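Fresh eyes needed here. I'd like your take on this protein's tokenised backbone:
***
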Amino acid sequence: MHSMNVPINKLWELEVLGISSPTETEKEKGDLDLNDFNDKMKILPDARYEVELHWKYDSKNLPCNKELVWKRHERMINRFGKGEFFSDYQKVFQDWEKLNIIERVPDFELNRECHYLSHRPVIKLDSQTTKIRPVFDASASQRGNPSLNKCLYKGINLIELIPDILDRFRMYPIGISADIEKAFLVLSVAPKDRDFLRFFILVMM
């Protein structure tokens, strides 16, 4: 029987039992991926960051799901098309196009085999910056085929760090919070990966 001398305070640490922190384990797994991600990142002349999708599996595994996503798009318009927020939802995409956040697919590329994302509106009337925004579904899949999410690394799980952040927030008498408007939209996707993020714009049916 193996025995070892361990200070009493160490008995309450999971590492003694061979159990490591899930957050630390995720960090160790994610370090190499994050380094690779950083190496491929570029800063564009307009100060936006261009990033590549971080593939876990070959992108060739993704099917062309244009027909499936178009049907979901039709159902979404039939459901929300007569609502009071529909014009506001349309304006979101119009504004994105003006800001070069999204781009229209050239006519000669419309028949190319690509992967599409469905989307729907999420409405938050109490938001000071974004009252209505699109949410894209990258988890949808056809039977026997992976979704886009399945083909990409999910990154590091930082949820377990939230209690520590909240504790630090409470250490001082004054706390400041901020909302960076459209923070994720300052990222530009590398041209070679854009065909995996196509979606249909809003048109009344």
Remarks:
- The CA atoms of residues 4 and 176 lie 48 Å apart.
- Strands lie at 42-43, 49-51, 118-123, 132-137, 187-189.
- The mean pLDDT is 81.
